[in-house]
Amino acid sequence: MITFKNVTKTFHLDSKTSISPVKDVSMDIASGEFIIITGRSGSGKTTLLNLSAGMVKPNSGRIIIDQTDLADMTDRQLSTLRNQKLGFVFQFPSLLSSLNVLENVTLPGIFDQGQNEKTIKARGLDLLKTMGLADKAAVYPRQLSAGEQKRVVLSRSLLNKPQVILADEPTSDLDEQTELEVMNLLRGINETGVTFIMVTHSLQLVPYASRAFNMENGILAEISRTGSKL
Amino acid sequence: MQLLKLALKNIRGSGFRSVAIFLCVMGVAGFLLATTIIIKGAEYSLDSGLKRLGADILVVPTGAENKVETALLMGRPTDVWMPESNLKAISAIEGVQSVSAQVYLSSLYGAACCAVSEMFMVVYDPATDFTVTPWLEKNLGRELKTGEVIGGSYIFVPPDEKYVRLYGYDMTLMGNLTPTGTGIDQTLFLTMDTARAMAASSLTTAVQPLKIKDGQISSVLVKVKPGADTHAVALRIVRDTQGMVPIESPNLFGAFRTQMNGLLWGFFAITVAVWALAMLLIALIFSMAANERRREMAVLRAIGATRGFIFCTILTEAGLLALSGAILGIIAAAGCIFMFKDYLAESLRMPFLFPSISSFLALFLGGVALAIVTVTLAALLPAYRVSHQELAVAMRE
User: Fold this and answer.
1) Residue A83 and residue B303: Cβ atoms within 8 Å?
2) Residue where one domain finishes, among candidates A136, A160, A184
3) A174 lies in the same domain as A203
4) ipTM
5) Are B304 and A103 within 8 A, CB to CB?
6) Same domain, A127 and A155
7) How close is the nearest chain A Cα to the Cα of B390, in Å?
8) Is the same domain home to A153 and A201?
9) CB–CB contact A103 B1 (8 Å)
10) Same domain, A119 and A186
């Protein structure tokens, strides 16, 4: 489904200094997998996630999604890919404060010309119901708890029925109980066939993964399969 | 939810920024329209005044040009005289089609016998007149009788009175001419018979008698023959007569037009400066807002928005703010000018007539279009930058 072939990303900070958060990474991710990538802050996890979505271009190597090399895609095609095949859960609060919960959830629908407003709205309400947020549809993000906000973001990422969810530290600012709830939700979604690539600094979440990797200084190493250590 | 809806939501969500841009556009659009309406209003007024006079050339005693122009322009009475024989001399000049004499009179200042102080009165000759006679034919269907007058648009019968009383002589106001915005609106038009009746009455009914100089007139209105060169006729008047100055119609109010042109350029310079400053300010606000919203826009890009969508969202926000600000600014400015037009004309010492509906609509649409173009231009660079930003970098900020 997603293939990384010798991917390297280097950022040039100035004419003399540069850093490479991703170094010669190769990885094959099959459809329906739950991938967890752990690592310290600054180890390159988020950059790897951004590379997966074509939001950053690698300096070398290839990233292939469904037999299509991201390097061959135009900016518009990449936007369509992100809208149709990928879903995002960000580390930071990513809901638009000027929109209510339902409007936030249905936001990806406005970029998909094939859908009508009624269908999008019905799908949004359905997702909110699944997440236990049906009564929060008209509420604004600032009125939600951190856990509720994560669930809204998750609903938004699922609106266009993506094949892959890219989750960047989805439980970083949640308490233990809410973290458990969110992880169970993610696992439930994964069981419907959606592929997950999740980045986290918490090793405690590794058991949720079908495969787990550790990233250090830009180098990726597999550490477990189906929740057990290699 | 479409682009327009999202833009509206964003505008509502960024209260301070939106209000700042809205007020900026409103102020500048209002100022621009106000200055244009004042200048256009003055031009329109002058044109209406000239049309009302109906003459190609106005002949006045030498040295009295400014006095007559001020009287016609601002309605301030003047006292100028020349021999009536001049009328015959002018009518004999080649290219002249018709001539009509006028006598300028004034009501008394602060006298109980006069309902209005220092009112400018124009005595015309019904046999030759082409200033008010066409209006009389159309609206009254007959000439004025002795004791009847017509007035400019501002002339009215005092409340609880039936007549206009001047020099203690009661006259019936038969109607009002259409507004011109010039002194003609404050002028009373009467025949020589009525003027003489008033003068006769004033000997016993007025604080001071009305004096009409026998064999004297104040000005001669000249119409040239069709196809004749007005300037050539004016030159012949200068060459063949003495003690008179011809003022060609387009040159009438020349001093005022020069003064107005100066004012126009002054207004224009101020407007351009204000507009440029406003554009800079709006560009700065948009730039700051774009910086603040880098992450928000990056999120939109991450969930599928194209660069074009981001670009259009910001420009739509700019366009909507410009549209609403300009409409409100223009309506507010037009409303204020309409309400205070008399005060404005008086304080700026210029004639003023509110432009016609079609002219106003053209100004309105022009103002709105200019505001939209300007604000969109101001938002262009920030919109381009935020739509082409590095997503990963923006999301890390």
Assistant:
1) yes
2) A160
3) yes
4) 0.90
5) no
6) yes
7) 8
8) no
9) yes
10) no
| Beta carbons of B135 and B150 less than 8 angstroms apart | yes
- The CA angle B171-B172-B177, to the nearest 5 degrees, is 115
Furthest C-alpha separation in chain B = 98
As a whole number of angstroms, the distance between CA B269 and CA B5 comes to: 38
Taking the C-alpha atoms of residue A123 and residue A159, their distance in angstroms, rounded to an integer, is 7
Which of B2, B10, B306 lies nearest to residue A76, judging by beta carbons? B306
In chain B, which residues have pLDDT < 70?
Answer: 1, 397
The domain locations on chain B are 3-47+257-396, 63-242
Tell me which residue range forms the domain holding A220: 2-85+162-229
Given this model, what pLDDT does residue A196 score? 94
Same domain, A143 and A185: no
Give the tens place of pLDDT for each residue, A184-210: 888 989 999 999 999 998 888 898 999
Q: Do A106 and B304 touch (CB under 8 A)?
A: no
Are A179 and A171 contacting, i.e. CB atoms less than 8 angstroms apart? yes
**Which of B198, B201, B203, B173 lies closest to B106 in space, CA to CA?**
B198
CATH number at residue A75: 3.40.50.300
Contacts of B242 (CB under 8 A, 6+ apart): none
Q: How far from each other are the two terminal CA atoms of chain B, in whole angstroms?
A: 28
Q: Quick: pLDDT tens for B289-300.
A: 888 889 889 999
Give bridge partners of residue A34 from the DSSP assignment: A196
Task: Show which residues on chain A lie within 8 Å of chain B, measured between beta carbons.
Answer: 46-47, 50, 53, 55-56, 75-76, 79-80, 82-84, 88, 90, 92, 94, 96-99, 103, 106-112, 117, 156-157, 160
* Residue in B closest to A121 by C-alpha: B1
Domain boundary residue, one of A160, A189, A216: A160
User: What is the number of structural domains in chain A?
Assistant: 2
B392 touches A: beta carbon within 8 Å:
yes
- Listed in order, strand segments (DSSP E) in B66-218 are 82-83, 96-106, 120-124, 148-151, 164-166, 169-176, 187-191, 216-217
Query: A63 and A168, same structural domain?
Result: yes
* Residues of B with Cβ-Cβ distance to A108 under 8 angstroms: 303-304
- A44 with A79, same domain? yes
